[in-house]
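ok so for the tutorial part 2 we go from a plain amino acid sequence to predicted structure tokens. step 1 is just haveing the sequence, like this:
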Amino acid sequence: MASKKYFLFSVILCLLVSTSFAQIGGSYDLRDSSLIPAKRMPQHEEFLNNAYPFPAKPRNEWEIGLKGGLPFASSDVRYWGPTGGFGIHVRKALGYVFSIRGEFDWLRMKGLNFQPSSDFGKNTAWMAPGTIPGANGPSVNPYQPGVDDVFYNYRTTVNELSVQGVVTLNNLRFHRSKTGFNVYGFGGIGLSRYHTFVNTHDASGSYEAAFNNLVATAPPGYFSYSNRKAIKKQLKSIMDGKFDTPAQTDPGQPTLGGWPIYPVAVVGAGAAFKINNKFNLAVEYKYTLIKTDLLDGQQWQENGATQTAQTRDYDSYSFFSVGLNYNIGKKAVEPLWWLNPLDYAYSEINAPRHMKLPKPILDDADGDGVTDQFDLEPNTPKGCPVDTHGVSRDTDGDGVPDCKDKELITPTQCQPVDADGVGKCPDPQCCKDLRAYIDSTGGGHGKCSIGDLPSITFKGRGVSLSKDAKALLASIADKMRNNPNCKVAVVGYGESSKSAQQLSWDRVNEVIKYLVEKEGISLDRFIFRYGQTNGDENTIDLKDGTGEEGPNTVPAPHPNLRRKN
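step 2 — the prediction. this is what the tokens look like for a chain of 565 residues:
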């Protein structure tokens, strides 16, 4: 016995170890022609030639299974206790969801009432004519309905053969290729035969005296549901456990091997747990409807010794089982209920091998080579070269695109430019020195003594004036009011890129704007300079510009890159 236990333990251990090699996920090669049955090869070839969008269904394996478990009967006689049963089946997938299964089950069930009955006049097991062995020799059946007490009991053996349709409920998955857990429901029809016996006596004779004594000596209310375990224990000590009296059967019912045979309907549900691509464990519950009330050998109600009232409630039985299933077949994929039919579509989306992808069409309204969704200048004039963002090239950053610029490289000091991109350069230094001399002698613009002016600093890439910067500008405004003959040059730095030039312009513009609008200084007293070299891009310098030439307003060089306060 011990060796059997060790063997069973070893088998279970091997199955558990094999789970580490379970191939969950992935699918078969759709192009493997060896997996396709001959009758579906035309479709397969059309699929390979891109003439048909759906791959042919592959050949898939059969499943065979062996199960064991506990059967239960629902009848007029109460459940005795755990018995046993086993079943075998063979299953074949007709599609990814539906499969067909043939199954044979051998089941044994027992029942024993814990309450006595005395009206058993038509129950053939207790009233069958004949003799019962006894200590003083055989005697005629001694049980007297209406006088004696008996305890209904039975043991039945059932053979069931059925064909079932099985529906898989969870192999259609959207977020992974396959699953290691399979839930299914099933239903079907079949044939069932049974053989029922009742335990009415042992080798010493009938239980008449023992049953009557048990009932007579029991206290009032003893035979209640709360005492059922104690009562059954007493009954089992009285009875020998041998069922040797045939129970009543339906007259005229067809038989097979001497057992009555009935059509049955079965329904149930189960769950299978994948071990690897060949083995899986299954847990099932199956319920069987059979059109007989004599599965337990008892169909009469307690209604006097003659038992004139016959019950109309048919018996039924169920089977809870645990089984091991194995897949068989050559040149075939796993049973289809383990595969996800969406796996092919998702694989094609991820790495197309069969799909015919249309040529992408991306709109480019201005025809500059940059598609509209990335074009920052969607209306570029025809023939104008653009950068990677679709913005017209402006090499010198003077605000005139290269395609219209008659002076392709205008020095920064010669900007702003006219509509053709031509700039106006300032006077040479000699002229400036002469004008300064005239001013110093009182013959020109007049002497300016405004002195050094503070610089304004901006943070990061911003163009907003801080409180400290506004205070400095207020002091600069006071000096300009006190020196009405002086001009101030507002100088910004940054020429390395278009964005740097535009940021320099924005900051110079912000300083002049503040002095004009907030401090009341005339606009014509400023010289607007931006994009200068050799300076800090975050600093705006204010210098004495008296005697210098330069504009007080300049168009933004790159309006599309302007920053807001």
